[in-house]
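Ferritin-like domain-containing protein
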Amino acid sequence: MKIGSQEHRDAFCRHFEQTYTEYDPHTLPWPELDEAALQRLRTVPFWAEVFYTERRAGAIVAAFTETVSDPVLKEALALQGREEARHADLIRVMIDKYGLDAPERPLEDISDNIDRRFKDFGFGECLDSFLGFGLFKIAWQSEFLPKEMLQIFETLMYEETRHIVFFVNWMAYTEAQRGWLSRTLLPVTSFHYYTRALRRMMGLAQRSKEMNDGKNFAATQVSMFLDGFNFRRFLEDCYSENSRRMGAFDPELLRPSFLPQLAETALKALRLWNTRSNLAPDSATSS
Ligand SMILES: [Fe+2]
Ligand SMILES: [Fe+2]
């Protein structure tokens, strides 16, 4: 299948629509939480940010959809916009049901430069999802929340995975249509957008640190979540979870490759580093 062809467009749009899941956030099997689980959920400091991000995502995708004339792309994008709006609804239902402290902030103005915003948003989702895959695995392993609750988030993670697969195919298709697809250009474009996404993520981390100062995630909660945390293992989890989740998609479609390749290189370097440091005492004694 030639990237940028009509066959490519039909394949990634059809796949996106065929993997749609119907559900209503209000009727999901929300579990009754005991006091300890409820406290853990309430001390997570980023629900307000997640709520805002999903509402903003819905608004950006909906506004971008309006600018697209190709009916096949438009229909698939409209579906993504509805899914993002449903994510916001899901978070809203959770906030109300469990009494979480996450007020609704007014949305920023997203009306200008919508093409750029949509691309920033798409690459941002690729970065968030790649790191989210690793964090979500830690959440399952540490049993930070009841499994019924994590199962609900699993639905959301699956949809985000579909979004990023759709996005990288849309990006490659769009660039090819403009005659821009080349082996050298795509990594350069990706690098540019990932740098912007990372900068935004760091800005956000700084802002939430300032906002949450004084009402920090209690030390016990952090240690439960991050007990035995080790950067290399986290990166391995991100990488392997990415491969596992991407394995569910049609092999003909493109999938995000920039971050997995970067992680693969970093992991190889870390393994080499570890092997060398493990060998070091032996070589010292033998010499
Ligand atoms: Fe979302
Ligand atoms: Fe998304």
